Amino acid sequence: MDRVVEERLDGLAARRTDGTLAGGRIGLEKESLRVTPEGRIAQTPHPAGLGSALTHPYITTDFSEALIELITPPFPSTGETLSFLDRVHRFVYRHLADEILWATSMPCRVGDDTTIPIARYGTSNVGQMKHVYRRGLSLRYGRVMQTISGVHFNYSPPETIWDALAELDGDTRPAIERVSDGFFALIRNFQRLGWVISYLFGASPAVCKSFLKHGTGSLVELDRGTWHLPWATSLRMSDIGYKNSNQAGLAVSYDGLEPYVTSLGRAIATPLAAYEALGVKVDGEYRQLNANVLQIENEYYSFIRPKQITRSGERPTLALRRRGVQYVEVRALDVNAFEPLGVGDAQMRFIEALLLLCLLRPSPRIDATEQTCIEHNQRTVASRGREPGLRLRVPGGERPLAEWVGALLDALDPICTVLDAAEPGAHRPYARALSLQREAVADPERLPSARVIAELRANGESFFDFAMRRSLEHRAALGDDGLSGEEVAAFTTQAERSLDEQREIEASDQTSLDEYLRRYFAQATDERPELLA
């Protein structure tokens, strides 16, 4: 298999002027709870000085009003992406008063659902739709699960690679078809290998006891305030984190663009009796957008998503169908408590190389047997990934995790070599990123998940105390500002502009929310999204 990768690398080098894989576009979306100095979820509204959560391109909210999401534009290097994320963190801290950004994926001390405010986006139809969607999530899964944070890694390979691959493969189809098929090949291989992200970068092996009030399953008490699993890497990605049992039978297809859009669209259009019993619009107030298995596309939980930038009022599946896949969103990364930004350069370079491997490797379709193996491996590594001698499933048998990871790191060698060729001088950051993971595999105590448990035990800390300490350290590192006057002015102008844009949207609405939602869900592939205004 990896001989094919090396042959494709050679073929690409012969067909591209620069001979490298560098220049792909990399973006991040990083979630963090705003918490009080006492470590509880903030009850204050999204700070006005940060602009409108509805329209600001870089600073918004996720499920909760207190769950800030920081978004970078796509950049051609990890350094530029992290630099932007650093600056936006610093601007946010200028407007948080005494509040703190929580440094881990698993939340702070949480009370019942009433202590977790659902995000609000103003009075416009689109703003109300976003709020109602979150009400639906609250009813279906509870608010506590929605306080879990993550880091999303957005990536698209360099555009020139697609024509080079087409020439290499003799593929004469229209670009939208072959590029989308290439992305879905990448996605299928990432489904097969995505467990390695939880293994190498999982950083949530423990959780505050306040998170689980009604049963702990297989979790074990670490101390009076902490539940954990001894060998876990990512409780966030385990059965106690993001999960939806009603999605288990969806069978969303990754065979290609049209099967994906069709299967996901079917789930959005299929009623579920349990959700019908909750009611959709009760006493004149929406409880959820609809009573279907999925309210909208974003409700489908997955390790990785194909993405296309949507236009105003456009459904994501229709954007994909109309314009194809533009990038992938990797959703498997925990917030890393050992990094002030929640993610580090070496992590990002490793993931970039892994995604390129997934693109260049042969990627047959995933049948039912292999899908069962994939789901088992994802769950098992999240809950038991550091267990000595752990074996994962492959069709027809098993494979030791340690052997599989070693082979995967070897397969990444030539890709990192090509990526490093574009770096200035003798600097080899991709080889260094790969070397760090080799060291962690050789000594699993270096894995972030193991380091969390080691610090809890060494310091006699509960999970809450550990996360609070790290959060305060990161605030000290990022809260000293460090922004230039020009940078502050630019962020301030962007915030003010976003507030103006929200007001314009609210003033321009010409229909009721009922009619807006009817038109939104009735969109056909040839309909113009601007008709929803």
Secondary structure: elements and pairs:
Blueprint: H1 2-15, E1 25-35, E2 59-61, E3 67-71, H2 78-93, E4 100-101, H3 125-141, E5 151-156, H4 160-169, H5 175-193, H6 195-201, E6 206-208, E7 220-223, E8 226-228, H7 257-268, H8 273-276, E9 281-282, E10 285-286, E11 304-307, H9 316-323, E12 327-333, H10 345-360, H11 368-384, E13 391-394, E14 397-400, H12 401-420, H13 429-442, H14 448-459, H15 463-478, H16 485-508, H17 513-521
Antiparallel strand pairs: 1-3, 1-4, 1-5, 2-3, 5-12, 6-8, 7-8, 9-10, 11-12, 13-14
Helix pairs in contact: 1-4, 5-10, 6-11, 7-9, 10-12, 10-13, 12-13
Poorly predicted regions: 525-533
Structural class: alpha+beta
Total tally of structural domains: 1
Please identify the top-level CATH class. Answer: Alpha Beta
How many helices? The count is 17
CATH architecture: 2-Layer Sandwich
